[in-house]
C-alpha cells in the first residue's frame, strides 16, 4: 500500500507537542478558497515550476515530447494540462526550477524516516503528525503508519479538517494520541461556498473523536473576509464551552504562502487581506475577555 | 614601569642580558632576560577613574613570550622579534636624524643578532628536507600548501588554585625547600624564585602608583577603591590572597607577566573567595560582577586574541559555590554586550543547575553567541579515550582559543600545524602535484585511471593523509624540542603539574601530559567529494574518473550538467547513510593518523581539532574545484558542519549527522548552529532540540541567533547593523566587520 507524500518534514515544532516529524499526504476532498497548501489537493503527482529559479536555458523544452514547455518572448510558459508526469524536464533542469510534487511511499518507508528522530521526541512529548491534504482520506496508509509508530511507542497525532467518513476514522482511533482539528467554518452555506464541503460531515467527525475521549487541539484558521465574523467567533466560543476537555485552541492567522505554491502548479488561489497585529490581538482579547484563556495565537 | 626616553631601550637591555648569559643555564638566562622585560612592560592604569585592578602591559618588540604576533601576522614563540616593526621603527629613527650613529648601530646589531637567534628561525633551521617539502611555507594566508607550520605555544592554563594556595611568598618558600631536596635542579628553582620576585616588584610599582593616584583623587568613592587596590597589591606581594579582589589582582599580574590569556575555570578557583567575601559582608554581588567585568576587560584589551573563561561542569571542588559564582560571570558577560573576549563557555551536563542553563539560553537568545555550550556528559569520556587519561584528569579538561581541548595545568594543547584536507584530496587526484601551482607537494600515489576502484582512491587519499599527519607530528616534536633547548617557560612551569616536583621545566619532562593538536580544514568538503565520486562515477557511472579530472581542471565550465549531478549526490548533514558513512570514514582516517603520532614521537598525545575560524575561506581560496561540485576558490566546509546550505532535512537530521563523527579520537570540533530568532524564542522546544543533540553525543555547540533578513540587509546597509553578532567558527565577530567572502559564507549557512 502506497500514498503520495508531499514531504516528510523533520523537526516540526508547530504541529503538536514537542519535536515532531510531520508527514504531508497528498490529496484532499475539500477546496478551501484560501488553501495554504494547494499542492496537497490533488491525489496525483504534479509538475511544479518555480519561475524565480528559471534561467531560461530551455533544456526542458528540448526533452519534452508533449510540448509542455514553451518560451515566448523569453518567457517560460508551462502547459500543465499536457504534462504526462514523465519527469524528464525535472531531470534536465539545471537550476531546480522544475520539480515533481508527490513521491509514492509505503508506510514503512515513511516510518523509517520518522523513527530517526526518536531521541528528540523523547525530550518532551514529541512524535509524528500526519497531515495533508486530508490525512483521514488515506486511511489505510495512516493505519499502517500509526500502528508502526505505536509499536515503537511514538506519540501520534493526526491533523484533520474532519471531512471524512466516521467508519474510516474508527479504524485509526485507537492508534491516535492527539487530533489537531481544523475548525474553519460554522454554517452550511459558507461551508459550501468557501471550503466545498458539508458541515454535517465535519461535525460528526468531531463528535466521534470527542466522545472517544481523544485529546484534541482545535485549530482555527482566521481568514479576513471569510470567517473573521462575530458569528464564527461565537461558534468557536460555544465549542470551547461545550467541550471542556479540549486541550487547546489555536488561532491561525491567514497567510498567502499558498498563492505562489498554487501558481507553481498552474492553479489559481484566491487572495485575502492579511490580518494586522492589532486585529490578531483583538481576536485573542475577545476570547480572553469571555474567559477562554486556552485560546492562543499559533 | 614602562617608560622609554628613546626607542629600543628595553629591547637593548633584554638583548644584553641574553648575550651575557648565552652560556649560562637556560633557566637562568631566561630569568635574566625577564628581569629586563617584566617590570619594564607594565603601564599605568588605563582608566584612572574606573579600573578596579592594576595590570596593563606594553609588549616589547623583542622579548620572551609563549605566543607573540609579529606584524607579518605570523605567530612566534619563546625568544621573539617583531622584525618588521623593528625595521620600520629604525628607519623612522634614521629619518628623524636626532639619534647618534652609535646608538643606531647598536640597534642594527641587535636586530641582526635576533634575526638568527630567535626561536622560530632556530626551529626552521632544523627542518629536514622531507619536512621542508611537506610543510609548504609559513604563510597560510598567501602560500598554497596542504600542511602549514605554526610557531606558537598557545593555550597555557595556569594552576590558579596553586597560586592562591601558596601566594608568591609561599611558592618561593616551596622552591627554597626544593633546592635542598633536589639540588640538581637548583638553577631552575633559583630562576623561578627570581621570576616570582619580579612579580612582587610589579606589585610594588603599582602600590607606588596607587599612592600617587590617591593623593590626587577628589572623589571619596574612588579614593576608597584606590585604597582597596593598594591594600590588595600590598597583601599579595607578601602573602596569599584572602579576598576575591586580591585573588583576581594576583592572577591578573601573573597572567600578564607570563603572556597567558586563558582564564580557564574561574568559577571553580574564585568561588570560595566570593562566598567568603559575601559572608563577611565585605562585598556585594553587584561589586563582584563589576570586578569580573573589569578583569575581563583587562584580558580582552591586553590580549587581542581568542581566550576562554569557563564555567560549570564536573570536577569543581565546591559545586554549589561555583554555580553561584558562575551566575556572577554570566551577569558580567551580559554587562559587556559588544565584547567577544573572553569567550565565556558553559560546561553543560544533564543534572546541572538549571538556573545556570536557563540564564545561558537567555543570553544566547539575545544573539550574543555566548556562552558556548560544551557537553560534559560526552566530553569527559571522550577526553579519557582521546588523551588516554583517568577520569579525574579528564574532568579537568579545558579548551582555549577556537576550542582546542587540553588538560588544565597538566597539558599543552597548542596547535603547531594546519592541514587543508581538501588540498590533500586534490593532491591525491593529481599524483601529489598541486594543480594550481604545478608544484609537487604530496606523495606520488599514482595517476588516476578509469579502471581503478573506489577503494583504491580511498587508500591513496589515506596514504596522503598519513604523510601529512606524520609531518605534523614530527614538526610538533621539533617545536617542543627547540623550546626545551632554548628556554624553561619559567612562569608557566611554576604553575604546571608536575614541574616543581620533578625539578624540570615544562618541555624538559616537567609537564604531566605533553599534548598538542593539529588543525584540520575542509573535512566535510572532502567527505562530500568522496561521496560524489562514489555515487556519480562508480555507482551511477555517469562519467569516468579521468573525465572528472578534466571537469575539475576546467572548474566545471562547459560541464554544468555533470556539476549538477555531483551537486545532487548525497551530502553530509542530512542523516543520509552513505554521505555520513564516508564522513565517518574520512574523519576516522585523519583522526587516527594524527593520534598515532603518540607512537612515533615523545608526545603523550597529538590530536586533531576541527575547530575552524575563517580559515576555511582562505584555504578554499587556495583550493581548486572539488568533486562535491564546489567551484575553485570558493570557501571550504566549516568545522564539523554540513557544507553551506547542503543540510536540507532539518536541524534534527543535521544534529544526527554531526553526532555520528566519533568525539573520542580528537580534541574538539565545532558544531555551528544558526538559529532564527523566531525558533530560538520557542524556549521549550530549543531545550528539547539541544537535549536531543546532547543525548545523541553532541559535544559542543556554537549558537548564533540571528535574523537572516538582518544579515542580508547588513550587506547593503552595514551602518544599520553595527551590532549584529555572528559566530564564525572558533570565534565571534561583528558581521559587518568580516571580509566579504566570510560574510557570504555565513549568509549561505542554513538558518533554522
From TrEMBL, chain A:
UniProt keyword Cell membrane, yes or no: no
SUPFAM superfamilies: 4Fe-4S ferredoxins, Radical SAM enzymes
Domain 4Fe-4S ferredoxin-type: 45-73, 74-103
Cited Pfam families: Fer4_12 (PF13353)
Protein name as annotated: Pyruvate formate lyase activating enzyme
Family listed: Belongs to the organic radical-activating enzymes family.
Record GO terms (molecular function): 4 iron, 4 sulfur cluster binding; lyase activity; metal ion binding; oxidoreductase activity
Location of the Radical SAM core domain: 14-293
Alphabetical UniProt keywords: 4Fe-4S, Iron, Iron-sulfur, Lyase, Metal-binding, Oxidoreductase, Pyruvate, S-adenosyl-L-methionine
Record's catalysed reaction(s): glycyl-[protein] + reduced [flavodoxin] + S-adenosyl-L-methionine = glycin-2-yl radical-[protein] + semiquinone [flavodoxin] + 5'-deoxyadenosine + L-methionine + H(+)
Cofactor: [4Fe-4S] cluster
Source organism (scientific name): Paenibacillus aquistagni
Automatic annotation (TrEMBL), chain B:
The keyword Lyase is assigned to this record: yes
Upper taxonomic lineage: Bacteria, Bacillati, Bacillota, Bacilli, Bacillales
PROSITE patterns for the chain: GLY_RADICAL_2 (PS51149), PFL (PS51554)
GO molecular function: lyase activity
Full protein name: Pyruvate-formate lyase
Pfam hit, one: Gly_radical
Species this chain originates from: Paenibacillus aquistagni
PTM sites of type Glycine radical: 730
InterPro entries xrefs: Gly_radical, GRE, PFL_dom
Domain Glycine radical: 638-752
Keyword annotations: Lyase, Organic radical, Pyruvate
PFL domain residues: 1-631
